[in-house]
Amino acid sequence: MLGGLGGYLIYIALLMIIPLWAQSKVKSTYKKYSKKATSSHMTGAEVARQILNDNGIFDVTVKETKGFLSDHYDPRKKTVNLSQDNYHGQSMASSAIAAHEVGHAIQDARDYAFLRFRSSLAPIASTGSNMAIFLIIAGMIFSQGLFLLGIVFFSVAVLFQLVTLPVEFDASNRAMTQLVSTGIIRNNEERETKKVLNAAAMTYVAAALVAVAELLRFILLYAASGE
């Protein structure tokens, strides 16, 4: 009994530690490279606009947004939203993040399949993740049918996390290609800029690992409840 409880506590600890480690890695890497200016001395906003123009994308607006590392691309409004530090910053970190978000805009313009699939999953995954836990808890108390329905809903949310991985990695690859080809970064800056993108990618990997682990736990609990 004690061993089982100990194993469960270790499992819960790992689910908490993995995302925290990934977030810590992003923040420390960002802090380091936000202090190193690129040789081009372009701001994040200028980087975003140049890459968009070079790819013939003129219907996307580059906007400043509030918050720390709140950068994102909004396909509905056609906006690349950069946090204040990255919008005005001339660092490797600012350039990397701006280029990454424009990478999503390029995906959108090129009709990238995984981005389309993720966008179609988003509303279902949001509803599913909110309802899943309630259904699973109700299923543990009342019926296996509700438990199974909760697992199905949660599976959609997990699928969303998994589909996010190729979307994010592809955006980073596009970002590096654009930064190098336009001359925004040069020489050893390429290696250092890539560290920023890799650190950011780890947050999505961590989220996917946690989601898959939770899904497997629910499936095992469901199987055990039917014995």
From TrEMBL:
Q: State the UniProt keywords alphabetically.
A: Membrane, Transmembrane, Transmembrane helix
Locate the transmembrane regions by residue number.
6-22, 120-141, 147-167, 196-224
Which Pfam families does this entry report, sorted A to Z?
Zn_peptidase_2
Q: Does the keyword Transcription apply?
A: no
| Xref: InterPro entries | Zn_peptidase_2
Q: PANTHER family from the entry?
A: MEMBRANE PROTEASE YUGP-RELATED
- Name the record gives this protein: Zinc metallopeptidase
Organism, scientific name: Lentibacillus halophilus
